[in-house]
Specification:
- The chain is α/β, with parallel strands linked by helices.
- The chain folds into 3 domains: about 45 residues; about 110 residues, Peptidoglycan recognition protein-like (Lysozyme-like, 3-Layer(aba) Sandwich), CATH 3.40.80.10; about 70 residues, no CATH class.
- It is built from 9 helices and 5 strands; from the N terminus they run αβαββαβαβααααα.
- Strands 3-2-4-1-5 form a 5-stranded mixed beta sheet, with helices on both faces.
- Strand 2 and strand 3 form a beta hairpin.
- Helix 7 crosses helix 9.
- The longest helix has about 45 residues.
- It starts with a helix and ends with a helix.
């Protein structure tokens, strides 16, 4: 009994120390985040210097007159990723290490836990080099969402349910167009393949996040021969109009097939693939 009485406080002390270490780890990270945000805010509050005399050649402003007609820039795209890591904690660690130079606004765990890591209005480093339509800086115009997934597995039901909930709130808050919910592989053909081929893009489209082709194209009774493509249909033009960078045609086709076809992604567009592309292309016009 005496031994047991001694073990109880020892165990309690050990648990307290473990909890304290975990809490302090995130506490220090959050303090560093807060300081960096305050530094950025301070730069916005600075009054630009004006010329002190006609001989002042160091300042370009003759006057500073503040206008009240402005607002915070709002995100216009959502880019979905998989983490290519093994756990939510591993991804959070990656995104809190300065040397990695990568981040995301949200990370969603396999159990549906949503962790926000950056204010929606701030620029995350998640998209990298890429292009969608005429936008060549998706980091500046998008919200990044990372799904805890090693890149070769299905996404859990809890994870997708949480994602749909989050997408609904973001779409309503920022009035994000239906067409502007895309994957990392869409904007970076040949460089990225996430979210992987198991990602349920149709389910997202059914909920209003992105487009999908008409299901009749895949029905057993559908006869391709009775649905000829227009003679002037150009697959590359259609991919470009949807948003893909077609400077590397093979990479653009691969990214399109990863998103919409889900099979034979390393092959050219079949006739059915082109019918699907044509069907989608009309939705993006």
């Amino acid at each position: 009994m005496r031994v047991q009485r001694l073990l109880v406080p020892v165990l309690l002390l050990t648990q307290t120390l473990l909890f304290s270490c975990t809490r302090d780890s995130y506490f220090l990270n959050n303090k560093a985040h807060e300081k960096q945000v305050k530094d950025r805010i301070q730069s916005l509050l600075e009054i630009p210097s004006t010329k002190q005399s006609n001989t002042d050649s160091l300042t370009i402003n003759d006057q500073w007159i503040g206008t009240t007609n402005f607002s915070i820039r709002r995100p216009n795209f959502v880019v979905i990723h998989h983490t290519a890591q093994e756990s939510l904690d591993q991804t959070i660690t990656t995104f809190t290490l300065t040397r990695t130079q990568v981040s995301s606004h949200y990370v969603i765990g396999r159990d549906g836990t949503i962790v926000q890591m950056l204010n929606d209005y701030l620029r995350s480093w998640h998209a990298g080099r890429g292009k969608w339509g005429n936008d060549t800086d998706l980091n500046s115009s998008s919200i990044g969402i990372e799904l805890d997934n090693n890149g070769s597995e299905y996404f859990s039901e809890q994870q997708i349910e949480s994602l749909l909930l989050l997408l609904g709130r973001l779409k309503e808050k920022y009035n994000i167009p239906t067409a502007n919910f895309i994957g990392h592989s869409d904007l970076a053909p040949g460089r990225k393949v996430d979210p992987n081929v198991y990602f349920p893009w149709k389910r997202l489209a059914d909920a209003g996040f992105g487009f999908w082709y008409d299901e009749e194209l895949m029905s057993p009774g559908f006869e391709q021969s009775k649905h000829p493509l227009p003679e002037n249909f150009n697959a590359m033009d259609a991919l470009r109009i949807i948003g893909y960078d077609i400077s590397d045609p093979e990479a653009a086709i691969l990214s399109f097939k990863l998103h919409f076809i889900k099979r034979d992604v390393d092959k050219d567009l079949s006739y059915l693939d082109q019918l699907i592309l044509y069907n989608l292309y009309k939705k993006y016009l």
